[in-house]
Amino acid sequence: MPASPPLSTEPPGTTARAVAAGARGLVKVYGSGEGVVRALDEVSLSFEPGTFTAIMGPSGSGKTTLLQCAAGLDRPDSGAVRIGMTQLGGLGERRLAQLRRSQVGFVFQSFNLLPSLTAAQNAVLPLRLAGRRPRRRVARDALMRVGLADRAHHRPAQLSGGQQQRVAIARALVAEPEVIFADEPTGALDTGSARDVLALLRDATDHEGRTLIMVTHDPVAAAVADRVVFLADGRIVDELAAPRAEAVAERITELGA
Questions:
Q1: How far is residue 246's CA from residue 242's CA, in Å, rounded to a whole number?
Q2: pLDDT score at 257
Q3: Phi, psi of 178 (to 5 degrees)
Q4: Dihedrals φ, ψ of 22, to 5°?
Q5: Of 193, 195, 124, whose CA–CA distance to 163 is shortest?
Q6: What's the mean pLDDT in 1-25?
Q7: Are 67 and 215 in contact (CB under 8 A)?
Q8: How far is CA 125 from CA 136, 179, 189, in A?
Q9: I need a labelling partner for 184 at 20 to 30 A (CA). Which of 61, 79, 192, 193 fits?
């Protein structure tokens, strides 16, 4: 597998290769002494704009840790992370939170919707947290995009799992982020709902130019991506372009997942 291109530290306007997000030399260690776990071991990876990457690996391979560090939800012990032209390492917590609200979207397996808010209120929550007061049509348009315009006033408990995940996708897209991070977005869904969610994520890349980075254990879900990156023991061990579910399943079985 060819080496990932280095992360540019050049300011905007240079001729550096476009990178929507990237990591260089990431190291993340948990514990100490005999119980130390090297969750990430010199991981370097770049994500070009408008691409969909799936990250797979056995349990404990470091894939969720990589996602959290790349998204700015956790800080590596060493190495560099960037979103667009912004290096995250030098940002304080307040500036980092602002960047996540404006440039990054998140979709989680557990949906993470606030139970006391309606679907419409959950969908525009990132805008409110950023200090904006979105008009009613913003929520309506966000839910229409994911096929839930008629569920705007329903609370999460009144929605199916697939519908809740679609609200979560609407929330991830509402601020028009450059990059969307998805952690097992279909893990809690039935086959039909999972297919719908993957279609929405694929559409965000194909028709809106979003960069998708998704952790998954499902070869069928991974096959929706443009490429699959495989981790084992905190290191990148393989990569597949234009993946097929059968090839993904074979490779992940070889890794012991």
A1: 12
A2: 62
A3: -75, -35
A4: -170, 160
A5: 193
A6: 56
A7: yes
A8: 12, 18, 23
A9: 79
| Alpha carbon distance 17, 230 (integer Å) | 23
Measure Cα distances from 111 to 144, 204, 205, 207 in Å.
18, 18, 20, 23
Q: What CA–CA distance (Å, rounded) separates 197 from 163?
A: 9
Contacts (Cβ under 8 Å, ≥6 apart) of 199: none
- Give the pLDDT confidence of 131-159 residue by residue, as tens digits: 888 888 999 999 999 999 999 999 999 99
Joined tokens for residue 154: 């329903």
Show the tokens assigned to 30.
């948990």
* Full-model pTM: 0.88
The first and second tokens of residue 53, run together, are: 């990457």
3-state secondary structure of 160: coil
Give the pLDDT of residue 33.
82
The token pair that represents 43 in the structure block: 């991981």
Q: Determine the Cα–Cα distance for residues 194 and 191; give it in Å rounded to an integer.
A: 5
What is the CA 256 to chain-centroid distance, rounded?
24
User: Could you say which DSSP state residue 10 is in?
Assistant: P
Residue 78 to residue 80: CA distance in whole angstroms: 7
How many Å apart are CA 34 and CA 19, to the nearest integer?
38
155 is written with which tokens? 């609370």
Say whether domain 49-73+90-254 belongs to CATH 3.40.1110.10: no
At residue 238's C-alpha, the angle toward residues 256 and 249, to 5°, is 45
